[in-house]
Amino acid sequence: EDLPLVNEVLALRNRVESTMTFKELILQVKETFRGAVENQDYPYETLLYKLGIRVPDGVPSLFDAAVLLEPLQEKKYLPRANPNLLFTFRRGEERIEGEMEFNSLLYHETTGKQIVTRLENFLEKAVSRPDLALGRLEMVSGVEREELLSRFNDTGAYYPIDKTLPQLIRDQVEKTPDLTAVVDSEIG
User: Fold this and answer.
1) Which of 77, 121, 142, 143 has the most beta carbons within 10 angstroms of its beta carbon?
2) What's the burial of 9, exposed, middle or buried (CB within 10 Å: 0-12/13-18/19+)?
3) b/e 150-164 (16+ beta carbons within 10 angstroms → b)
4) Structural contact between residues 78 and 66, judged by C-beta atoms closer than 8 angstroms
5) What is this structure's pTM?
6) Mean local confidence (pLDDT), 72-77
7) How many whole angstroms separate alpha carbon 129 and alpha carbon 150?
8) Chain segment 33-43, per-residue pLDDT in tens
9) What is the mean pLDDT of residues 57-67?
10) Which of 125, 158, 153, 160 is closest to 140 using CA atoms?
11) Average pLDDT over residues 104-116
12) Which DSSP letter does residue 26 get?
């Protein structure tokens, strides 16, 4: 069956709660999409104007992330939206394939790779357990989880056993008299 091209930018806004299930989220997005399609003829430029979004030197971004579903949509119609993240999905022979493009002024390549990896982990778990609350679905892999819990959380530091905390603070003040030695959030 030939599907028509959908080359309008549809801005969707969904409220995601950690207690929702993936199945509930998909149904919510479906309803939001239906409402957006009913209003798809509303001029994009008018929407930007009514929202007070004006950028004299460039195209404003109405939203941070965009999703393209190939072959229903073509990327050449997207520049007006100027998203910071672009996810493109297409149907493969036995699976859905995707790629992500990102604004390199906002995201480092390492961050982009983390987003993709975490999205893959999340979607694998969400599809296999669609009735589980979103807040209970892990986005990090076992390897990344171990790294976060052990290596990045390794805050051990050497402290001389023969000195008290006030003595350590006094020593720091003497070493760097022009810098802050202690901050107390309780003192206003």
Assistant:
1) 121
2) buried
3) eeeeeeeeeeeeeee
4) yes
5) 0.64
6) 77
7) 28
8) 888 878 777 77
9) 69
10) 125
11) 91
12) H
> For 80-132, what is the HEC assignment?
CCCCCEEEEEEECCCCEEEEEEECCCCCCHHHHHHHHHHHHHHHHHHHHCCCC
* Strands 65-70, 96-102: pairing kind: unpaired
What is the identity of the amino acid at 12?
A: L
Mean pLDDT of 151-179: 85
Residues 6+ apart with CB under 8 A from 137: 22, 122, 125, 126, 129
> What are the backbone dihedrals phi and psi of residue 102, each rounded to the nearest 5 degrees, phi first?
-140, 160
Q: Which H or E element spans position 27?
A: helix 22-38
Which residue type occupies 52? Answer: G
In which residue are the tokens 């000195």 written? 163
Tokens of 63: 């939203």
- Tell the residue number behind the tokens 């950028």, with chain if given: 55
End-to-end CA distance of the chain: 67
Pairwise CA distance, residues 12 & 22, whole Å = 17
- Residue the block writes with tokens 């939206």: 81
